[in-house]
Design brief:
The chain is of the alpha/beta class. It has three domains: 145 residues, Beta-Lactamase; 160 residues, Alpha-Beta Plaits (2-Layer Sandwich); 250 residues, TIM Barrel. Helices cover 47% and strands 23% of the residues. A hairpin with a 5-residue loop joins strand 4 and strand 5. The longest helix has 21 residues. The radius of gyration is 39 Å and the shape is elongated. It starts with a helix and ends in a 7-residue tail after the last helix. The N terminus is likely disordered. Bound molecules: ligand C2E and magnesium ion (2 copies). The site of one magnesium ion has 4 residues, from strand 18.
Length: 588
């Protein structure tokens, strides 16, 4: 295709041929040429053999901010600022003079106001009768905006807009690059998987905007803890990954993890809130922990969960034991799906003692899973699994039905007034038809609602306190009791606590354990008991194992207690014999 400049010259040549008077022809030719050059939408420049400007159209004037009269005779390099552009234009110019054209290239022009414009040039030459180059014609397009858009799109495809860190796509790209390099040169590298502790709490309590702000601020601290050649990526939610290439020893990854944790010691300021945030970090190392991307990532993730299990705010290297645990988890999950239909669950019951009358006023139903392969599995292990998979809904329904039927049976055989406590998990509590389910089960089993109590952990009700209040009201309207379990472990807002229609607080066993020796635990238990009483709630201590703890709690005016001191959770037949007495002695 002909360039615009070629077109123009063809036109002017044609004009020349039709003119009789050489003077008239020259004038007309000049003005037509100028007019044409000025209306084309491209920059048109004509240079002589010394690269001096002899023609500069209106578009050139517009883009550069200079008038032709000001720059006439100046060298074209004067508009260029980048060394590499000057060099390449010189090379191209030389090539064109030698008859090697057209040449296409891009370079940055500096305009009068100092702004840089990116121009895409296309060159051709004017020849004399001896086919020698007399002039170089350059036509150009200002592609600055187009380039910026392209760069922005490129950026968006590879960087996370919230944090400005590499996104998942760029992370995978860099990781495969580092992996390839490490394989070839036999080098070690580490992958750090980071998760903010308690992020959900910030998000839920302060709102998503504050949650986003926290992620952004956290992201800002991370690159300062690593080398420039390392990659810090935001791969979603509150999760970050870091690639540390070229390690001499795995220990270097721990140094970085420690540095990161130290950087998080300073609180974040979210609006008016001072927020202390910690991190759990899992580390996998190439080649010992895997030699492909998926394995390394999976193992750093497993290690991160291990760090969470160890109490958070720590880092953890992957080791193969973790894999065994992860595998067990996977197998348990598969078995859990069939456990209900195979009747592998049973309920144990633990008595609850009224410390004023020393009588057993109720029992707590605690689920047990008897698996042919693994034996008895603790609910601490499988309830979270059931939660994650959603199986808790069916399992929870079974627990509620079995416990209610059992309670009704005990009422019928003479254990009048015995309260049956059943634990509800987060997912159950949030399930749409919970209230209807409870109603139906009570109807079906014939248990009177006042003999049923539901135990909900503090975090479950605080997760969405307003919604919880509504559900709790419905439950209370039915006549069913409610207790807040593991109290003291979460972050209760006292204003909410006042509004919750509940009957009882259960002091978490972690405060009871060292109550006689740890002044902090004593202070917490004292505060919970005093607060419960002022809110007209009963208070029960769980995990009471010694007489010392019991006496201490009694002195603090605790109403009720539950724990190994009185009895472990027992299977039906054993709890039935226990219940026969219903009275326990004071000072056991
Ligand atoms: P939880 O509801 O706080 O139950 C108290 C846990 O403390 C029980 O553990 C109980 O066996 C244990 N315990 C009782 N007395 C003592 C003591 O004196 N010392 C110590 N160290 N521990 C004591 P378990 O049965 O392993 O249950 C653990 C958790 O699993 C429960 O904590 C509850 O959150 C959950 N869970 C148990 N059964 C169910 C259920 O049917 N549904 C749901 N959603 N969760 C359940
Ligand atoms: Mg409980
Ligand atoms: Mg508890």
């Amino acid at each position: 295709m002909e360039t615009e400049a070629e077109n123009i010259f063809r036109l002017t040549n044609a004009l020349e041929e039709t003119q009789d008077s050489p003077y008239c022809a020259a004038v007309q030719q000049q003005s037509v040429l100028t007019a044409i050059l000025d209306i084309v939408g491209a920059l048109v420049l004509i240079l002589d053999r010394d690269s001096r400007i002899v023609c500069f159209n209106r578009m050139c004037e517009k883009v550069s901010g200079y008038e032709f009269t000001e720059i006439k005779g100046k060298c074209i390099w004067d508009f260029l600022i980048r060394e590499e552009d000057i060099d390449s234009v010189k090379v191209n110019f030389e090539r064109i003079l030698k008859g090697d054209f057209p040449a296409e290239y891009e370079n940055f022009w500096i305009s009068r106001n100092g702004s840089e414009r990116l121009i895409a040039w296309s060159n051709t030459a004017m020849l004399n009768d001896n086919s020698e180059v007399t002039h170089v014609i350059a036509t150009g397009l200002d592609i600055t905006e187009r380039k910026l858009t392209e760069q922005r799109l490129q950026y968006l495809a590879h960087f996370d807009s919230l944090t400005d860190l590499p996104n998942r796509t760029l992370f995978y790209d860099r990781l495969s690059h580092v992996l390839g390099h490490s394989r070839r040169y036999n080098q070690m590298f580490a992958l750090l998987f980071l998760d903010l502790d308690g992020f959900k709490f910030v998000n839920d309590s302060l709102g998503h905007d504050m949650g986003d702000l926290l992620i952004k601020m956290a992201a800002g601290r991370l690159p300062k803890c690593v080398r420039e050649s390392d990659t810090v990526a935001h791969v979603g939610g509150d999760e970050f990954v870091i690639i540390l290439p070229l390690l001499e020893k795995a220990r270097e990854a721990a140094v970085v993890a420690e540095k990161i944790m130290e950087a998080f010691l300073t609180p974040f300021y979210l609006d008016t809130h001072e927020c202390f945030v910690t991190l759990s970090i899992g580390i996998s190392v190439y080649p010992s922990d895997g030699d492909d991307i998926d394995t390394l990532l999976k193992n750093s993730d497993i290690a991160m969960y291990q760090a969470k299990d160890k109490g958070r705010n720590t880092y953890q290297f992957y080791n193969s034991d973790m894999n065994t645990r992860a595998l067990r988890r996977l197998k348990l999950e598969n078995n859990l799906r069939k456990a209900l239909e195979k009747n592998e669950f049973i309920l144990h019951y633990q008595p609850k003692i009224d410390l004023n009358t020393w009588s057993v006023y109720g029992v707590e139903a605690l689920i047990r899973w008897i698996n042919p392969q693994y034996g008895m599995i603790s609910p601490v292990e499988f309830i979270p699994l059931a939660e994650e998979t959603g199986l808790i809904i069916a399992i929870g329904e079974w627990v509620l039905r079995t416990a209610c039927a059992q309670a009704k049976h005990w009422q019928d055989i003479g254990h009048k007034g015995l309260l049956m406590s059943v634990n509800l998990s987060a997912r159950q509590f949030k399930s749409q038809n919970l209230v209807l389910l409870i109603e139906n089960i009570l109807k079906e089993t014939g248990l009177s609602p006042e003999f049923l109590e539901l135990e909900l952990t503090e975090s479950v009700v605080m997760d969405d306190a307003e919604a919880a209040i509504k559900i709790l009201r419905d439950i209370k309207t039915m006549g069913v009791h409610v207790a807040i379990d593991d109290f003291g472990m979460g972050y209760s807002s006292l204003s909410y606590l006042k509004r919750f229609p509940i009957d009882r607080l259960k002091i978490d066993k972690s405060f009871v354990r060292d109550i006689t020796t740890d002044p902090d635990d004593e202070a917490i238990a004292t505060a919970i008991i005093a607060m419960s009483h002022s809110l007209k709630l009963k208070v029960i201590a769980e995990g009471v194992e010694t007489n010392g703890q019991l006496e201490f709690l009694r002195a603090l005016d605790c109403d009720e207690a539950q724990g190994y001191l009185f009895s472990r959770p027992l299977p039906v037949e054993d709890i039935e014999s226990y219940l026969k007495t219903r009275k326990v002695k004071s000072g056991l």
